[in-house]
UniProtKB/TrEMBL annotation:
CDD domains named among the record's database cross-references: GT35_Glycogen_Phosphorylase (cd04300)
Molecular-function GO term, any one: 1,4-alpha-oligoglucan phosphorylase activity
Pfam families xrefs: Phosphorylase
Protein name in UniProt: Alpha-1,4 glucan phosphorylase
Catalytic activity entry: [(1->4)-alpha-D-glucosyl](n) + phosphate = [(1->4)-alpha-D-glucosyl](n-1) + alpha-D-glucose 1-phosphate
Signal peptide residue numbers: none
Family listed: Belongs to the glycogen phosphorylase family.
Keywords: Carbohydrate metabolism, Glycosyltransferase, Pyridoxal phosphate, Transferase
InterPro entries the record matches: Glycg_phsphrylas, Glyco_trans_35, Pyridoxal_P_attach_site
Record's function text: Allosteric enzyme that catalyzes the rate-limiting step in glycogen catabolism, the phosphorolytic cleavage of glycogen to produce glucose-1-phosphate, and plays a central role in maintaining cellular and organismal glucose homeostasis.
SUPFAM superfamilies documented for this protein: UDP-Glycosyltransferase/glycogen phosphorylase (SSF53756)
Protein's organism: Kordiimonas lipolytica
């Protein structure tokens, strides 16, 4: 009877401003005259959330009614960024919100910036998951994100004398206005103990540790709020309550020991991007959210289905890399141990639902857990993994005479015994995909070569994408308005329409407007740089930006070395008519990654020298912005002229920053790596700057053993810079400080900086020339924006839905 609420309660019938004021007073408990920006931010968030709830319930009701196939996206990371501007835009409330606040002399932009940025991810993988949530809700997939509600996301980065400092990130300190706590949704997660066989021969696991997973739901509205899906994040708490007796004895620590231990599981995100640290707590985090998610989706399935053999018809599960790969034995365990199903049938059901996406080929990023740890923490899962390996081996022996299954199995008995999560995920999945065409081919030729031979149709490609809502409509309103006034607004919901801009590349008037928008964005970025690091940059200079996690394969070092060589050349002849450049870096290094942290220090030390040298004032500035995150990217990307995508070919699985820059009218300088290859195919060879060794050449050199010191000696500009660095030129004469970098480059140079340096220098000089011819440059820039339609995450999600999930 209460299904349909009285009209008067429908938030759509209350002007947004009134709803904001009502929440300010009755939800936030502040009156307008004393409210600060954060209070208005909270009130506006609650008012906008109200508008999403009806759509949310409608979507849920529709999914149940239509028995739509459900998609569950399991990810250890969701780098969702601030949600308010995105929700306002997707719900079509931007104008109304702007109007209300300017009416009251308040600036909506300032209120939006009062929202904390929930950095629940490290980098590409986490942000992709967030873009996918937006696209699944926009395209109308019944998709649900499952992850961890970390109390602390990726660390806050600051610099002390140029060195990276890490501090805990505190996104929840003022509460979270978007989530709904679901205390009634709670699942037990078990660890340790032992497994016995009962009289009926059934395996019974008696865990030594049990904690509870509690659900927190965040509504995810798609474009125009047509569909509102759910992001369910799990938080750990103890199954036991406080030990009151101990507490009264004053043993406060002992009394809350269980609570502290349990809550530590969802306390903080592991900051390792590409380095599997192999810590027990990390394994527990992976098991915790995976088990809670599988228990929850089975519970939901059984609400209106009885026959678990039908699960694959109604449910598709996507494993975001190997981090939730324990899902393979865990789903089998739940079906066998808790639903009394037969082992082989349970494995078939699990394999019918599970799909695995690989995001990296870096050996150190491929997770493998010590057998003894799995034995100790997950004795029942290990039994099941062994049975899966046996089933797999039998299948291989049956199908491939004389083929040894051992190298492909999950368990590697050698070197003390390991469980290889990549193999486990591959064996337990129906489909395995890479994230760019090149990466998927390399997966077949390298890490999964033998598995690909035995399962030739299992691997397919789904090239990454980005949501055009956050990464154009919201972060670059100037360009969005220009596009909409030129070709209408259909591009927001369907980015393939943006190709209607192609003819305007030939339209001088349009190019000038395009350029004017870019200049405004560069001025905004210049103000941000001034406020963040106190460096004044000229918005008419060429803004050359490299923003991403710091990693040797992403080659921030090669960019820094080229910058130092440019500095030398400018100093040698300041009047040579140089194209003024602002080199902008940003990105975090994993705290344990010393070489990456040393590269940050080198760039900061070089900046001190270059930015204070009057000889190159107005010609060259070097900036390293602290604490790069989603919100910073939303200011940096619209203000870029040049996008640095210079990874060692074969190492960047896809990249997604490359897509964001090109969509916002920046030109790419890059290698034929990851999705750069496909960006080149779509924007055209003349509208991108490609250089360097290709993946097969890199592989040949890495296996062939190269002599980087010889290459340096043969590359004068590089030699000069390397000599300067090792002589202490950038370190007040301290010849030791950057020894780690110099020795590494000269001796190993595994990531091929030395052989690619000259080509990189040459193409940068070519770019100087091209930028001077602004008409040509703007034509190329318009053609980049106009040809990026395919890189919408809506296209990617439709690919997953049609080729993998069968869910549309
Ligand atoms: C276990 C530690 C760990 C943590 C995160 C990861 C991620 C897979 C690293 C990552 O973010 N990979 C990036 O994924 C993006 C989305 O597909 C790609 O665009 C990037 O090329 C890839 O580096 C590996 C290992």
């Amino acid at each position: 009877k209460l299904e349909k609420l009285p009209e008067s309660l429908d938030p759509k019938n209350v002007p947004l401003g009134e709803a904001v004021l009502r929440h300010l007073v009755y939800s936030v408990g502040k009156d307008a005259s004393h409210a600060v920006r954060r209070d208005w931010c909270a009130a506006l968030s609650l008012a906008v959330r109200d508008r999403m709830v009806d759509g949310w319930m409608d979507t849920t009701r529709r999914i149940y009614k239509e028995k739509a196939k459900r998609v569950y996206y399991l990810s250890m990371e969701f780098m969702i960024g601030r949600l308010l501007e995105d929700a306002i835009s997707n719900m079509g409330l931007t104008a109304e919100a702007k109007g209300f606040f300017s009416e009251h002399g308040l600036d909506l932009q300032e209120i939006l910036e009062a929202e904390p940025d929930p950095a629940l991810g490290n980098g590409g993988l986490g942000r992709l998951a967030a873009c996918f949530l937006d696209s699944m809700a926009t395209v109308g997939v019944a998709g649900m994100g499952y992850g961890i509600r970390y109390e602390h996301g990726i660390f806050r980065q600051s610099f002390q004398d140029g060195w990276q400092l890490e501090e805990p990130e505190d996104w929840l300190i003022f509460g979270n206005n978007w989530e709904f706590h679901r205390p009634e949704v709670s699942y037990p997660i078990s660890f340790g103990g032992s497994v016995q066989q009962d009289a009926q021969g059934k395996m019974v696991w008696t865990p030594s540790e049990r904690i509870l997973a509690g659900a927190f739901d965040t509504p995810i509205a798609g474009w125009q709020g047509k569909h509102v899906n759910t992001l369910r994040l799990w938080s750990a708490r103890s199954a036991e309550t406080l030990n009151l007796h101990q507490f009264n004895q004053g043993e406060f620590m002992a009394a809350s020991r269980q609570q502290v231990l349990a809550e530590s599981i969802t306390k903080v995100l592991y900051p390792g991007d590409h380095t599997a640290e192999g810590r027990e707590l990390r394994l527990k985090q992976e098991v915790f959210f995976t088990s809670a998610s599988l228990q929850d989706l089975l519970h939901r399935f059984l609400l209106d289905n009885k026959d678990l053999t039908a699960l694959p018809k109604h449910v598709a599960i996507q494993l975001n890399d190997t981090h939730p790969a324990i899902a393979v034995p865990e789903l089998v365990r739940l079906l066998v141990d808790e639903h009394d199903m037969e082992f082989v049938q349970s494995f078939e059901i699990a394999r019918g639902c599970l799909n695995y996406t690989n995001h990296t080929l870096l050996p150190e990023a491929l997770e493998k857990w010590p057998l003894e740890l799995i034995e100790r923490c997950l004795p029942r899962h290990l039994q099941i993994i062994r049975e899966i390996d046996n089933l797999f081996a039998a299948e291989i022996r049956a199908k491939f005479e004389g083929k040894d299954p051992a190298p492909m199995q999950a368990i590697d008995p050698h070197h003390g015994g390991w469980v290889r999560m990549g193999n486990l995920a591959f064996i337990g999945a129906k489909r395995v995909n890479g994230v760019s065409a090149l990466h998927t081919e390399l997966m077949k030729q390298t890490v999964f070569k033998d598995l690909h031979e035995v399962y030739p149709d299992r691997i397919l490609n789904q090239t990454n994408g980005i949501t055009p809502r956050r990464w154009l409509k919201e972060c670059n309103p100037g360009l969005a308005e220009l596009i909409t006034e030129t070709i209408g607004e259909d591009w927001v919901g369907d980015l393939s329409h943006i190709s209607e801009l192609v003819p305007y590349a030939e339209d001088k008037a349009f190019r000038d407007k395009f350029k004017a928008v870019k200049l405004e964005n560069k001025k905004r970025l210049a103000a941000y740089i001034q406020s963040e690091v106190g460096i004044k940059v000229d918005p008419t200079a060429l803004f050359d930006i490299q923003i991403k996690r710091i990693h040797e394969y992403k080659r921030q070092l090669m960019n820094a070395l080229e910058t130092m060589a440019l500095y030398n050349a400018m100093k040698a002849d300041p009047k040579a008519g140089w194209q003024p450049r602002v080199k902008i870096f940003a990105g975090k290094a994993a705290p344990s990654y010393t070489l990456a942290k040393l590269i940050i220090k080198l760039i900061n030390d070089a900046a001190k020298v270059i930015n204070n040298d009057p000889d190159v004032d107005g010609l060259l500035k070097l900036v390293f912005l602290p604490n790069y995150n989603v919100s910073a990217a939303e200011i940096l990307i619209p203000g870029a002229d040049l996008s640095e995508q210079i990874s060692t070919a074969g190492f960047e699985a896809s990249g997604t920053g490359n897509m964001k820059f090109a969509l916002n009218g920046a030109l790419t300088v890059g290698t034929l790596d990851g999705a750069n290859v496909e960006i080149k195919e779509h924007v055209g060879d003349d509208n991108i700057f490609i250089f360097g060794l290709e993946a097969d050449e890199v592989a040949a050199r890495q296996h062939g053993g190269c002599q980087p010191w010889v290459t340096v000696a043969e590359t004068p500009r590089l030699q000069e810079v390397v000599t300067q660095i090792s002589s202490g030129f950038y370190s007040n004469g301290d010849t030791e400080r950057f020894k780690g970098i110099v020795d590494n480059v000269l001796a190993h140079d595994y990531f091929q900086v030395t052989p690619d340096f000259q080509a990189y220098w040459d193409i940068q000089r070519k770019i100087d020339g091209e930028f001077k011819d602004q008409d040509t440059w703007q034509r190329m820039a318009v053609l980049n924006t106009a040809n990026m339609g395919w890189f919408s995450a809506d296209r990617t999600i439709r690919g997953y839905a049609n080729d993998i999930w069968k869910a549309l």
